[in-house]
Amino acid sequence: MPVQPLGRVGMGYPEAAQQATRGGFREALETAIEKAGALEDQADAAVLSLLSQEDADIHTAVIASEKATLGLQLAISVRNKMLEAYLEIMRMQV
Question: Hey, how many other C-beta atoms are within 10 angstroms of the C-beta on 71?
Answer without folding.
Answer: 22
